Amino acid sequence: MFIILGIILLFSAALFFYIKGEIIIGGDFEDLIGTTPMEAQPVKEYVDQCLYNIGKEAIIRIGENGGYIEIDPATVTIIPGRPTLSEGLEIVPNTDIVVPYWFFMSSDDTCQNGCVFEDYLKPKLKKTGVDDLLTIEGQIASFVEENLGSCLRDFDSFEQVGMSVSASNPVADAVIDRASKYVSIRLRMPLSIEKGGVNTSLEYFLQKFDVGLYNMYNLATHLTRQELKNYYLEQVVTNLITIFSGLNNSIIPPPYGGVDFFLSNPIQTWDKKEVKLHIQNFLNPYVANLKPTNTLAISKVVNLGDDQWSDTVNKLNYVIDLELGELLLPFDVQFVYSPDWPIYLDVSPSLGDFILPDRSYPTIMTFLGYGLTRYDFSYDVSFPVLIKISDEAAFKGEGYDFYFAMEANLRNNQALFASNSDNYVSNDEAEQSLICTDEASKTGDVTIEVRDYLTQEEISHVSIFSEFAGVSCRAGETSSPFVGKLKAGIGHLTLTHPDYLSVNNFLVLVENKTYDFSFEMYPEKTLNVSVFKKMISKSTGWGINDDQVFSEEGNEQVILTFERVPDEDSKQRIKKTVFFYDDYSPKSVKLYPGEYELSIVYMNTDEFTIPRETKKVGPWWNRKTITIPAMDLTLGFSLDYNESEYNLLISPDELYDKKDLELGLLIPDFYREQQSLNSNDLKVLEDISKYHKQNYEEIKLVLR
User: What are the φ and ψ backbone dihedral angles of 21, each rounded to 5 degrees?
Assistant: First the structure.
């Protein structure tokens, strides 16, 4: 008897849990809700509203975080300021606003140990019975179960109207449906309601959200697949490089610039840091012009006809063919790149921070006055892209956005994916010409020790290059210390490090001979730069009168530029700029020892007036009287001394012993003198360089 009863109870319990599961995931949930008794209607509406609010918050979070309610820092690695080494994109630097990559290269940017690609941070949409809590449906359901209570607040507000409500633990289920284009959240939470001795109960609740999350997720998936198939992100940066690169002082080096055969022609070089900044700034509009077909974004492509202007406008739009036939998805799609997101860039051949062409001197061509300078540059570029899919009709017209991110990777001027990464040769390897790898023309072991000039501590990660007969060969980098072979010959040894002034040393290296070298490198030193002004007054015959302070109203601006002159110790040309605007307190600048050319720009946005005047012009036999109307002008000038005797010379001892730089400016006092000004007085501006040179000792840059 008891055995039979136990079997019946066990079967009943199993049936209960089976029915519970079917209730949550079954298709006839609305039938279970039934009709709500009048006395329970306020409670029903209260629960419905909380379910809607919590469910809406969950869905919005899913959209904001690339398919996640919350990004766990323990599972998504973010390296601040290095988005191409991270597993997600930090939208705003130094915040927790992160969107995970749905596809990215997880290996180091250099691919020294091979290129590895991953898509494991793309969440699954639908529950499948395996890791359901990690799916988007599972996350929404869990969020509702965990946070519904904070909204219901134990139904305390109903006690004030004499109603007692007790609730069981909520069990939620989320269904992201394709057919209905809704997100449904179904809730089983048995409630017992008592008022005035009358008992009623509620158990099932349902909320539907008019968000096309199913199709938005599938569109994001399709955009990811098309990137892997057609690499449209890499095409953007390739087109950008092609358009803005070239010779004849172009801002970035060309991938295919050809060969210059003349030895007499100076080589063109580029600063790698400046090239990186140019590409980052250009990426912003170019990425934004990606337009996928089958979406509302394609309607934004301009079509003005066949004229040249229309062609130019349309070339700015890069159409992504989603290959979905006539299907039109009611979503807008935007691609976003911010210049605040640093890219990874390496261009070869290069020498430290300088990008320069390969140059060789075949013997027979040298006698004829020819050499080979090859302007073909190899680009390695990685950058993040944020993709935003918008459903403007969602949430009854409030709109809904779904974000995810991808990383683009260009290596050796070609798109790089898992399918071709095994054949990738890094720039470090690609830039080594045959002459660099010729073991028959190398020294024996060379030991190079590099120390900090100030601390005398060894410096690691110093790149070592040898340049002989116009060919630059990268030997490696220091690692307490460097030991390796160098190209033999007569030429230069160059040491570079991003935190130090590069070192150039003339050497004669003999094949198979061993050498032991020790070098010092100069670190940057931060100096505080201040400016003062002396007035050139007309009352003293346009001579120096007195000192004045700069205006704090924002009308005066001073821009100082320090440009280091390359010397025999370092060929590195460095340019530093300091801005004074509103606040004329000392500004910081980082300099190295050396000689600096100084240029100055001064602007005052206030107007001064040269009164109306009459004057006689022409030779005495044809003298005429003319009238010059009153002129309202603003004061501004640029100053380059253009003579080495006025350059700033900073020795190592001076630089590291001092902390302040002070500079004076001579400013024509046009504003206080304007009542007595005439057009001839404008010649003061033409002679401004002369005034500064004549009074150089009073205003020159001084280290203190």
Answer: -65, -45
**Using an 8 Å Cβ cutoff, are 160 and 195 in contact?**
no
The span from the CA of 210 to the CA of 252, in Å, is: 48
349 cis-preceded (ω within 30 degrees of 0):
yes
pLDDT higher than 60, residue 263: no
Give one DSSP letter per residue of 422-451, joined into a string: GG---HHHHT--TTTT-GGGB-S-EEEEEE
Mean pLDDT of 121-148: 90
| Three-state DSSP state, 44 | helix
Strands (E), 274-428: 290-292, 318-320, 332-336, 344-348, 350-351, 354-355, 358-360, 370-374, 378-391, 400-411, 414-415
Q: Model-level pTM greater than 0.85?
A: no
pLDDT of 312 above 50: no
Helix 136-152 and helix 41-64, axial crossing angle in degrees, nearest 10: 130
CB 521 within 8 Å of CB 454: no
Q: Is a pLDDT exceeding 50 seen at residue 17?
A: no
Q: What is the secondary structure of 210-276 as a DSSP string?
A: ---HHHHHHHHHHHHHHHHHH-HHHHHHHHHHHHHB-SSS-SB--SS--EEEETTSPPP-EEHHHHH
The residue type found at 44 is K
**How many C-beta atoms surround the C-beta of residue 478 within 10 A?**
20
Tell me how crowded residue 160 is: count the other CB atoms within 10 A of its CB. Answer: 7
Contact between residue 580 and residue 587 where contact means Cβ atoms under 8 Å apart: yes
| H and E: helices and strands count for the chain | 15, 39
Strand partners, 209: 183
pLDDT of 162-214, one tens digit each? 889 999 999 999 999 877 689 999 999 999 999 888 889 899 999 999 999 99
Report residue 650 as tokens: 């900073």
Q: Tell me how long the chain is.
A: 704
The Cα–Cα gap between 577 and 628 comes to 39
Backbone φ/ψ region at 518: left (φ over 0), alpha (ψ -120 to 50), beta: beta
Looking at residue 313, its amino acid is V
> Look-up: residue for tokens 């100084």?
598
pLDDT in tens, 676-693: 887 778 888 878 888 888
Q: Quick one: average pLDDT of 614-642?
A: 77
Phi, psi of 469 (to 5 degrees): 55, 35
Q: Using CA atoms, how far apart are residues 264 and 371, in angstroms rounded to an integer? A: 9
CA distance 543 to 525: 37
What is the C-alpha separation between 528 and 588, in angstroms, rounded? 5
Of 618, 602, 587, 575, the closest CA to residue 668 belongs to: 602
Burial class (CB in 10 A: 0-12, 13-18, 19+), 127: buried
Taking only Cα atoms into account, the Rg of the chain, rounded to an integer number of angstroms, comes to: 36
CB 342 within 8 A of CB 81: yes
